[in-house]
Amino acid sequence: MRLRWVGWAMHKVSDAVRSTHGQDGAVVLDLRQGQIFSFNLVGSRILALLESGARESDVVDAVSRDFGIGRDIAGGDVHDFIEQLQNLHLVE
């Protein structure tokens, strides 16, 4: 079991990011880097929640509830995904 502290951190989606969300996931364009990304349904949900200003802990709660997984697993996966978004400069 992975235990991680999931705090009250708020992450801001970069102003250079444009996204469209559909039933299969999301397509994300980074205008600054000229790159396009494709996210599955879970990644799309996480990004949409971040775009709406949700805190990381709220994202974890929503992912756990919406996809029927334990909060501990959701917490680790959400945290890892947000770190990847930060590394790609999609989230600050």
List descriptors.
92 residues; alpha+beta; Arc Repressor Mutant, subunit A
The gist of it:
With 92 residues, the protein is of the alpha+beta class. The chain is 43% helix and 18% strand.
CATH topology tier name: Arc Repressor Mutant, subunit A
**Helix-strand makeup class:** alpha+beta
Task: Identify the quaternary structure here.
Answer: single chain
Order of helices and strands: EEEHHH
Radius of gyration over all CA atoms, rounded:
13 Å
Stretches where pLDDT is under 50 for at least 5 consecutive residues are 1-6
Domain module tally = 1
CATH class: Mainly Alpha
How far apart the termini lie comes to 28 Å
Beta-strand portion reads: 15-25%
Main-sheet strand order equals: 1-2-3
Q: Describe the sheet with the most strands.
A: 3 strands, antiparallel
What's the total helix number?
Answer: 3
Number of strands: 3
**The CATH architecture:** Orthogonal Bundle
- Mean pLDDT reading: 92
User: What does the overall shape look like?
Assistant: globular
Helicity level, as a percent range?
Answer: 40-55%
